[in-house]
Amino acid sequence: MIKSGKAKRFVWILSFALGPVAYLIVLTILFLKPPRMVNIAAVTDDLSGFVETFASFWFAGFVLVWIWYWSGKFMIKYGPFV
To answer: Considering Cα of 63, then 19, then 26, then 71, what sign does the dihedral take?
Structure first.
């Protein structure tokens, strides 16, 4: 599926960046909510919760990109025979 070095590099960069970008989007949405709802201060006050949430977003983004990559590779290889 991926033959060039630039494309492989893009998949690696995407797999490492997708989770943190999604997490920053969620934090931005929380930052824009009214004060009486859960906001960014409540999220960042608890450092262990912040780290756990960030790690889970990063891991989920990493896994999703590689599932997408391998399923695409599988469909290209075995798709015409199914």
So the answer is: negative
Q: Would you write out the chain's pLDDT as a tens digit for each of its 82 residues?
A: 556 778 788 888 888 888 888 888 887 777 776 666 666 666 666 777 778 888 888 898 889 888 888 888 877 777 766 5
Q: Taken in order 39, 29, 60, 7, is the CA torsion positive or negative?
A: negative
**Cβ-proximal residues to 50 (8 Å cutoff; 6+ apart), any chain:** 43, 44
Distances 38 to 25, 58, 61, 64, 79 between C-alpha atoms, Å: 15, 22, 24, 27, 46
